[in-house]
Amino acid sequence: MYLTPQHILLAGATGLTGEHLLDRLLNEPTVARVLAPTRRALAEHPHLENPVGELLDVLPQLSGQVDTAFCCLGTTIKQAGSKEAFRAVDHDLVLAFAQRARDLGARHLLVVSALGADANSSVFYNQVKGQTEQALKQQGWPQLTIARPSLLIGPRAEFRLGERVLMPLSRLVPGKYHGIETTVLARALWRLALEEDDGTRIIESDQLRRLGR
Question: Could you read off the pLDDT of 70-120 as tens digits, one per residue?
């Protein structure tokens, strides 16, 4: 477990999971600095550095020590506008962020993927998530933690009909298919970040729920 002050790089700080994770990080006594690039400015905090702009434009400008990186980037095909635009975020942008974090010295990457991620899936969404996981493994991370949450439960700024319909059902199904609160996921991610376990770990949603209680 880390006892020295941590320098954190976080992508997706304005998203459903990222905002809860950011709040937790800024209130952790072992976190000295959170570097969180976003498209819109965040509330000021003495331990927060918040470069504002499109992530691809901001990435080359990031500097300073980074110990651990969290990637909470993600969209939907509908929100992105096309399959190509979806892949540009959930695959290309995730990999670009991860590589920049590695360049800055991060040893541990924690990335939010998705339940059912499989590079060989016939479902495009799951296929892209699986291909992203595969590519991350090839970046040579000393420690890589891949979180695969099921349906995320929490208030969103935008309306998603499919999620509104599935959310009540997701609370009833057992095991890893049970929906997970974003606050629970954020707690689980931080606990996983504190563990020193070299290599790649894939953490399924039921494990995430137990860790985040």
Answer: 999 999 999 999 999 999 999 999 999 999 999 999 999 999 999 999 999
Neighbours of 2 (CB within 10 A): 14
d(CA 125, CA 82): 12
- pLDDT tens across 6-21, in order? 999 999 999 989 999 9
- What's the average model confidence in pLDDT over 159-164? 44
Domains of the chain: residue spans and CATH: 6-211 (3.40.50.720)
CA distance 99 to 110: 13
Which alpha helices (DSSP H) does the chain contain, by range? 18-26, 55-58, 77-80, 83-87, 94-103, 124-137, 161-170, 182-193, 205-211
User: Each residue of 185-207: pLDDT tens digit?
Assistant: 999 999 999 998 889 999 999 99
CA atoms of 209 and 213, how far apart (whole Å): 6
Q: What integer pLDDT is reported at residue 172 of this predicted model?
A: 45
- 60 is written with which tokens? 């080359």
Contact indicator for 101, 108 with CB cutoff of 8 Å? no
Residues 136, 76: Cα–Cα separation, whole Å: 20
Separation CA 200–CA 85 (nearest Å):
28
Q: Which of 127, 150, 138 is nearest to 200 (CA)?
A: 138
Closest CA to 20 of 181, 159, 197: 181
